[in-house]
Design a protein that fits this description.
The structure holds 2 protein chains of 2 kinds. By secondary structure, chain A is an alpha+beta fold. Chain A is built from 12 helices and 26 strands. The chains are: A alpha+beta, B mainly alpha. The complex binds adenosine-5'-triphosphate. Chain B: InterPro entries: DnaJ_domain, J_dom_sf, RAC_head, RAC_head_sf, ZUO1-like_ZHD, Zuotin/DnaJC2, Zuotin_N.
């Protein structure tokens, strides 16, 4: 019998569990019907709540509600940023200088270490997954941010095991998300592509530029902004609501914790609603001094109050691309991940950075077939889980050794000259060894010239053509139309020649380029019964 | 796009020219994720080239498919089954749909999944469409239903409970084979319903007495999960007719209970029958007896005298008993005679009463023949007769009955008039 291994996205704000069963990928809904399950625990009347039920306690019982704790794993108290924790249980330093929380669970107050909190939370997910699948779970594949240290990864695996979910593998979030994306049935899993994966979550933003060549994912650059996320959009709305409330009732709600908790709760709802509709009504009972508060907010307003966060999101992606030493024109696809990627403005800000003819933006607002951004990671982890479920721990460990993972990657693309220019066979950053076959139309005695490809970004300054006299007269308010602007284009041309082959072709020629472990390149060509080959 | 022509100066004898090696590659870490990486890791770790790897993996896949296919033979598909109305999927043999009739309840989950996969490959609507068979996916739906049923343990139990082809009938005398051949199969089949597993089986002539006892005691306390939901009539889900819905639900419930009761009774009867036919029972009994006899003989050989004395005592006791019995018998005869007399008296009394009661009517209430008596006359006469009968004891009854013979109006009048006077009854008719 094959093992039951779940894919687990363990987020700082929310978590998801997915499973591949009989070739069908499913994201698990817990008893509240949630697939994105808030990463929170709450203690009330001697009971433990998790997920949405814990989140609800943020208004009434914030001191006993533990939230935003994942990133504290294996961190000393001195180093952590607690800015996300001011509306829930406050972290404290434990005897080992690590992080803990003081909560009343049961009769009295206890100091619970962050490790213990994680185990308790994962146990809840374990139960939810068990109930959903109806089968004992044998293990998990867990996704964590790329900047998680080895120590943090080990600790996560250890704690998961304690929660009954031994980790077969701990993988990177953006890679998991991308694996889920390229596994979409309508996407060619064999096409070589350069991806930007941008994950906008609740408390943080993480990005990676990933080359996907020959079915291998290679991370070229990563970026993290631990102070940018959906929370900033919430705060912008909270501030807006607080201002409006103060204007109306002459009472400052910011002075009351409970009032702010209520506004925070409503702000997130408003934000989520505005991902689907352009305007929304809200009503909050007894915000402060007994005043109820109701009104409406439209998307435009939201985008204005959240402007600075949106600008930072755009900058984040821009810098990420730059960090990978690539141009936006090199990027084939941008995959938007994380709950905040539901926000239409996030997609439009990101889309604005790329050439719409060159780059496809994958988000629910730009691609009707896009996988829900807050499910991508769990789904990818579940796909990986199904791939490794038949391996034992030793086999997996073996394949994680540097001799396997660390390998030479092509520094330049390799292609073949054609009558029109050059056609790429192997992309830059392709892991060696590699073998690739292409077919090209050919007739008669033809030359197969294998070359390296040089790509260049051409920047042209274009001056608008002077307008015919009289045409411009009424519209001179739009004078920037007359300004010069840049047109950037990506040009590829043949570079260094590596090998030449002559063949008598008959309709088309198949070219196979193989680069072996010892970096020898073999080129073989075939057309009909003709066959030529050689090694460089 | 096309390949350029060979330049004129190309040396045709030399078809390949190595010119330069590619730019030194860069070491980077590949993500150990996805099917592509799995292949890479396999090639590196097993030191295979792409083509070796392809060949070996293809061989392995073929082998995997072969072993999967050799696990069980594919069964021919009945043409009627393929045309079956998917709405009526419940009436199909769920195991036949997946081609598992040789296994039935013995098929494990893996086998069911394998069988399902195989059937899906064969009958998938896309494939049928590709073969130009039109888009009839009726049987495909049945396949999915059968899979859903068999892969879900509780639904599978519902089906297994009523799978008619899995039943082994209670063997009759005519069933071929010896006791073990006839009953072994029955108990093996019934075992599938046991909530407690494993279930002790019938065994053979070499089974020990303890084993046989354990066997029967287990089966007498058999805890069966068999249930009969599968036979339920579909409950209509139209909310307009709640009463009807409730009625059908009730009916289903009652039927399930009845089936369950019948099933329990059936099993108990079968176990009793098996027990009565079980040759080991006589064997164990005979062995037991022989052992006892042996012991007894040894004991007696040791104390012959005592035995003889005991025999004499027993003889005396037997004589006494015989006498008592004879006495009792004699006693019984006397009692019987008395009883007979009593019964005769009783029946005589009845007869006399009847004679008295009928007499007045037989003489037409002392009226000339053919004249209708008035209702009052009849009532009065009968009242006197009844009162008199009531007052007479057995002897007197016989006496008066005698006085009515021969039966004439005069003898009747004389006898009754005398009677009422003698008994002090206030006459209404015999004035
Ligand atoms: N439909 C939606 N529209 C807008 N925002 C949404 C929507 N759904 C979820 N979010 C926001 O997404 C954020 C949660 O993101 P996600 O589920 O990716 O969590 P996460 O990866 O754990 O976050 P992090 O680790 O960065 O804290 C929350 O701020 C939530 O408000």
């Amino acid at each position: 019998m094959s093992k039951t291994i779940i894919g687990l996205s363990f987020g700082n704000t929310s978590s998801s569990v997915a499973i591949m069963k009989d070739g069908v990928l499913e994201v698990i809904a817990n008893q509240d019907g949630d697939r994105a399950i808030p990463t929170m625990l709450s203690y009330a009347h001697g009971d433990e709540y998790y997920g949405a039920q814990a989140k609800q306690q943020l208004v009434r019982n914030p001191k006993n509600t533990v939230a935003f704790f994942r990133d504290f794993l294996a961190n000393s108290y001195a180093k952590i940023d607690v800015s996300a924790n001011h509306r829930s249980a406050h972290p404290v330093e434990d005897s080992e200088k690590l992080v803990a929380f003081k909560v009343v669970d049961g009769e009295s107050e206890h100091t619970v270490s962050v490790n213990e909190i994680v185990v308790r939370y994962l146990k809840q997910l374990h139960t939810a997954a068990n109930d959903y699948i109806g089968k004992e779970i044998d293990g998990s594949v867990i996704a964590v941010p790329t900047n998680f240290s080895e120590q943090q990864r080990k600790l996560v695996a250890e704690l998961a095991e304690k929660a009954g979910l031994p980790a077969l593998q701990v993988i990177n979030e953006p890679t998991a998300a991308l694996l889920a994306h390229v596994s979409r049935p309508d996407i060619d899993a064999h096409a070589n592509k350069l991806f930007v994966v941008a994950d906008f979550g609740g408390t943080r933003s993480d990005g990676a530029v990933i080359a996907y060549n020959g079915g291998i994912f290679t991370i070229l650059a990563t970026m993290h902004d631990l102070e940018l996320g959906g929370r900033d959009l919430d705060e912008a709305i909270i501030e807006h609501l607080a201002k409006e409330f103060e204007k109306e009732y002459k009472v400052d709600p910011r002075k009351e914790e409970r009032a702010m908790a209520k506004l925070a709760h409503e702000a997130e709802l408003i934000k989520k609603t505005l991902s689907n509709s352009t305007t929304t009504q809200f009503g909050i009972e007894s915000v402060a001094s007994g005043f109820d508060f109701s009104g409406s907010l439209n998307r435009l307003r939201f985008e204005m109050v959240g402007r600075s966060a949106f600008t930072r999101i755009g900058d984040f992606v821009k810098h990420l691309v730059a960090k990978a030493n690539v141009d936006v024109l090199d990027v084939d696809e941008v995959l938007l991940v994380g709950g905040t990627s539901w926000v239409p403005k996030v997609s439009s800000v990101v889309s604005g950075l790329f050439d719409s003819e060159r780059t496809v933006i994958r988000s629910p607002n730009t691609d009707t077939k896009a996988i829900d951004p807050d499910e991508l990671i769990a789904r990818g982890a579940a796909i990986q889980a199904s791939l490794v479920s038949n391996f034992d721990a030793e086999e997996i460990a073996e394949s994680l050794q540097p001799v396997v993972t660390n390998g030479p990657h092509l520094a330049k693309p390799i292609g073949v000259k054609t009558a029109e220019g050059v056609t790429e066979i192997l992309a830059i950053n392709t892991l060696i060894p590699i073998r690739k076959t292409i077919s090209i139309p050919a007739e008669g005695d033809v030359l197969i010239e294998i070359v390296e490809i040089e790509r260049e970004i051409k920047v042209e300054t274009v001056k608008p053509e002077p307008k015919a006299a009289g045409e411009d007269e009424e519209s001179d308010w739009s004078d920037d139309e007359d300004e010069e602007y840049e047109v950037r284009s990506r040009v590829v041309k043949p570079g260094k020649t590596l090998a030449q082959l002559g063949i008598t072709a008959n309709g088309k020629a198949d070219i196979v380029v193989t680069i072996s472990k010892d970096l020898k390149m073999q080129v073989a060509a075939r057309s009909g019964s003709e066959h030529v080959a050689g090694t460089v | 796009m096309s390949l350029p022509a060979l330049p004129r100066d190309w040396n045709k004898s030399e078809s390949f020219k190595a010119v330069a090696s590619f730019t030194t590659p860069e070491k980077l870490a590949a993500e150990p994720v996805g099917p592509g990486f799995l292949g890479h890791a396999r090639r590196i770790l097993r030191n295979r080239t792409f083509s070796e790897d392809e060949r070996l993996e293809a061989e392995r896949n073929v082998k995997a498919i072969e072993t999967a296919d050799n696990d069980y033979e594919s069964e021919p598909e009945d043409a009627d089954m393929l045309r079956h109305d998917p709405k009526d999927w419940k009436s199909l043999d769920q195991y036949e749909v997946l081609g598992l009739t040789k296994y039935r309840w013995r098929a494990d989950e893996d086998l069911i999944r394998k069988a399902h996969r195989r059937k899906v490959l064969k009958h998938h609507p896309d494939k049928k469409a590709a073969e130009g068979a039109g888009d009839e996916d009726g049987f495909f739906k049945c396949i999915q239903k059968a899979f859903e049923t068999l892969v879900d343990p509780s639904k599978r139990r519902q089906w297994d409970s009523v799978d008619p082809k899995a039943n082994v009938p209670v063997p009759s005398k005519k069933t071929k084979g010896d006791f073990f051949e006839r009953w072994g199969k029955f108990f093996e089949a019934e075992s599938r319903f046991s909530t407690k597993q494993p279930v002790p089986q019938l065994g053979d002539l070499n089974s020990t007495k303890a084993e046989v006892d354990a066997f029967y005691s287990f089966w007498r306390r058999f805890d069966s999960w068999r249930s009969f939901e599968w036979l339920d009539e579909d409950v209509p889900d139209d909310s307009s007719n709640r009463d009807n819905k409730r009625y059908i639900e009730k009916k289903n419930k009652a039927l399930r209970a009845k089936h369950k009761k019948d099933d329990t009774a059936r099993l108990i009867k079968a176990i009793d029958l098996a027990l009565s036919e079980d040759p080991r029972h006589r064997m164990f009994k005979d062995a037991d007896k022989a052992a006892k006899a042996q012991k007894k003989w040894e004991r007696e050989a040791g104390s012959r005298e005592a035995a003889e004395k005991k025999a004499a005592e027993e003889q005396a006791k037997a004589d006494a008993e015989a006498k008592a019995k004879a006495d009792a018998e004699a006693n019984k005869d006397a009692k019987e005679a008395a009883k007979k007399a009593k019964e005769a008296a009783k029946s005589a009394k009845k007869k006399h009463k009847r004679t008295l009661r009928n007499a007045i009517k037989d003489v037409n209430y002392l009226l000339p023949e053919g004249e209708q008596p008035s209702p009052d006359t009849v009532a009065n006469a009968l009242a006197d007769v009844d009162n008199l009968i009531e007052a007479l004891d057995d002897m007197e009854l016989a006496d008066y009955a005698g006085k009515l013979s021969p039966l004439t109006a005069d003898s009747v009048k004389a006898a009754f008039t005398e009677g009422v006077q003698a008994k002090g009854i206030k006459p209404k008719f015999f004035l």
